[in-house]
Amino acid sequence: MKKFRKCWKWIAVMALAGICLVSLQGTVRAKAEETDTAPTGVYVDSVDISGMTLEQATGAVEAYVEDLLQTELVLQYTAEGSRVAEITVTAAQLGGSWSNVEIVEEAVSAGKSGNVVERYKALKDLERTNKVYEVEISFDQTAIQEFIEQNCTAYDQAAVNYSLTRSGGSFQVVAGSTGYAVNVEESAANIAAALNEGWDKTACALELTVEVEEPQGSAEELSRVQDVIGTYSTSFSGATSAKIANITNGARLINGVTVYPGEEFSFDSYSSPYTTDNGFVTGKAYEAGKVVDSVGGGICQVSSTLYNAVLRAELEVTMRYNHSMIVGYVPISSDATLAESSGKDFRFVNDTDTPVYIEAYVSGTTLTVNIYGEETRASNRTVEFESVILETIDPGADVIYTDASQPIGYVSTSSAYTGYKAQLWKVVYVDGVEQSRTQVNSSNYSAVARTATFGTATSDESQAAAMNEALATGSIDYVKSVVNSLLAAGTTTETAETTTEAATTEDTSAATE
User: Fold this and answer.
1) Which pTM was predicted?
2) CB proximity list for 192: less than 8 A, separation 6 or greater
3) Which of 10, 289, 336, 473 is the most buried (most CB within 10 A)?
4) Dihedral of CA 66/67/70/73: which sign?
């Protein structure tokens, strides 16, 4: 009897457990049958997605994230303790994006995974405490760097070195100023790290990395610049008004430049571009063995005069090119041409321990360049420069061209140029006795034949015959004499003769060689 009662109790317990299990299953099944929506009490950040389908929840969270990415952040630009600028930017502009989109599906499926007991427990927990899934926002360092480059570097300020001005025969020091610049790469890396590791999704300020650049020089250092350590003058007597204008403008552009120890001076960086906006006019230029019109014609006399002053200051020349044809304002192999298009420049390095100052000015028909610094060379030591011609190259026979679009009487001529191979030597004397002789450069100048272009258009057969006979001689002078005879006889229309003079006074930086 006792055994029967125990058996009946066990059956009763099992039956009750079954009823409870069925009831629990029914509860869980009922919850699950609510159209696959998120349970009550589920949030994605602050977005309540209770009762939403996956599609609805995704849309709601996407809208939230879109608003979140419009959160304004401030990039602070600070230099030497002073706020230079504050640049406002949105999280989206810094490459912010939603990186864990899978949490919406996970949130909607809350309480729907595991066995019956686990799911039941999860649902009961949600009835007591909300479950919040966190949106994660990641920031792209490349986007941050691009934004900084495009929007923050505009506040950079270059350091201004201490410099000199000269007036009334004395120097005045112009104080420099500190420069600063944002370190784009380092700023981007730091900001990306700060945002990716701990952004609380609210507006905040982020500091840019700014580097400070101190100006070169000081009043004390520049006070040592007192002596003329190199000087040279060239004449432009007889030059055209265009060349005079370009020489004057070129001297203005390099006048007053201070070059610090170890610094390289580039003539082109101060004088270019060779445009009318930069004060130049159209003058004569060397181009492919010809003299042509080009804006800036004559500027090479300035670079050549500076070259000779630098040589006498015994500073280190790092770039110099000779002209394609000889010039007349400096001795052979003492010139320094410029060609902006082909990268030809005149450069030197201040290899002394003191700053040097360039003074360039025009007085009458003379261009003078002085190099000031601190004279440390012995007073009994002198330097001279000698030009040596190694080879002379004959320009060859005249070259005649004809132009059927011009009438007989039209003549355009270009002078011949003798070619040379030459060298420049530096000779050092002490107490008048030669101590050393060093080659400074080698120069090759092209030989160019004299050319002339004659107009040949005529309806008169006798004129044409006379011209053809003259042209056949190959002599420019003879053809000219025939043309003059025809003009004197009144058998052709007189036109002005165009002559391109020797470029000894008309050379320019615009030349391409």
Assistant:
1) 0.73
2) 139, 140, 141, 144
3) 336
4) negative
**pLDDT given at position 293:** 76
Helical segments of 280-435, H only: 299-313
Widest pairwise Cα distance in the chain: 164
pLDDT in tens, 209-228: 999 999 999 999 999 999 99
Q: CA-to-CA distance for 480 and 408, rounded, in angstroms?
A: 11
Q: Is-contact 454 401, C-beta < 8 A?
A: yes
For 178-189, b where at least 16 C-beta lie within 10 A, e where not — what string?
A: ebbbbebeebbe
CA separation for the pair 313, 296 (Å, rounded): 27
Q: For tokens 């609210």, what's the residue?
A: 202
Could you give the angle at which helices 461-471 and 476-488 cross, rounded to 10 degrees?
A: 160
Angle CA 238–388–506, to nearest 5: 25
Q: Containing H/E element for 420?
A: strand 419-430
Closest CA to 103 of 56, 54, 68: 54
Question: 122: which 2 tokens?
Answer: 């999860």
Separation of alpha carbons 168 and 165, rounded Å: 10
- DSSP label at residue 134: P
Amino acid at 140: D
